[in-house]
Design brief:
Blueprint: H1 2-10, E1 18-20, H2 27-41, E2 45-49, H3 63-68, H4 71-74, E3 79-84, H5 99-114, E4 118-126, H6 129-141, E5 148-153, H7 158-168, H8 171-182, H9 184-187, H10 194-205, E6 212-218, H11 223-231, E7 233-235, E8 241-243, E9 250-252
Parallel strand pairs: 1-2, 2-3, 3-4, 4-5, 5-6, 6-9
Antiparallel strand pairs: 7-8
Helix pairs in contact: 1-2, 7-8
């Protein structure tokens, strides 16, 4: 991972490695990762996640515990992104509520207020705009004003997306894919995110979600396919997806 980060940085890309808390054994291991990314690859940003395993490998259960160590500040990490869960997360709230994820996002807002790091929320990928827009409105009412990078699944086979959606707990938006799967004429066609991006763009044009800072592509169908699709499309001011031009700012996450 460090070698890859070094190569990408050398090619001119800003690199944001993932730090999955439940895969990191202890503070010594975390500091080793941070120090090597900084010293060997020049990395100064990170995406902090709990990680997908049910039981932690060691000392860290959550991204908040990693942030509390102060190690990212010690090594000059100036940008920290944290996870957002518009549809909840069963790993964090097994009872199906959003109590723990809501408390966590409020804590992250408070951390941002006492930290010098530039912070943003990166959401899980979604196939439907409305649940995400409602979730962001709830954040603002709760006093959480971190900019939101909306997760979008890049073009991929429908079967691939359904498999990832089930594994990642994207419950409400999964219904969109299930409805599509019922239509035999669409079943074999690759999914493209034009419709959901248009919905977000129209909302942004009405100032409904001014804190949406970027689209964060999850290239579940492959990085090349996602990058080529993004390069062919742009979100117009009227909220339509138009062919040609440059893509709006995005961050691709290589899962």
């Amino acid at each position: 991972m460090i070698a890859t980060a070094r190569r990408l940085a050398r090619d001119g890309f800003p690199v944001m490695p993932h730090f999955p808390a439940r895969l990191i054994a202890d503070k010594v291991m975390l500091e080793d990762w941070i120090a090597r990314y900084r010293g060997e690859a020049g990395v100064d940003r990170a995406l902090l996640l709990a990680g997908g395993r049910s039981a932690p490998a060691g000392a860290f259960q959550s991204s908040m515990q990693m942030m509390e160590t102060g190690l990212f500040d010690k090594y000059g990490f100036t940008r920290l992104h944290v996870a957002g869960h518009p549809e909840g997360n069963r790993d964090i709230d097994p009872d199906g509520s959003t109590a723990n994820v809501d408390a966590a996002i409020r804590w992250k807002q408070q951390f941002a207020e006492r930290s010098d790091a530039e912070m943003a929320i990166v959401t899980q990928f979604a196939f439907e705009a409305r649940p995400v827009l409602d979730w962001i409105a709830g954040l603002r009412e709760a006093g959480v004003h971190l900019p939101v990078h909306v997760g979008i699944a890049g073009p991929a086979k429908l079967q691939t997306l359904i498999r990832f959606a089930i594994a990642c707990g994207v419950g409400s938006s999964l219904k969109v894919l299930q409805r599509r799967a019922v239509d035999v004429t669409k079943l074999m066609l690759p999914y493209e995110p034009a419709d959901v991006l248009s919905d977000f763009a129209r909302a942004a044009s009405r100032d409904e979600t001014p804190a949406i800072a970027q689209v964060h592509f999850f290239p579940l169908g492959g990085i090349r396919a996602c990058a080529e699709w993004a390069a062919r499309h742009v979100v117009s001011e009227r909220g339509q997806i138009a062919a040609g031009g440059r893509p709006s700012p995005s961050a691709a996450s290589g899962r």
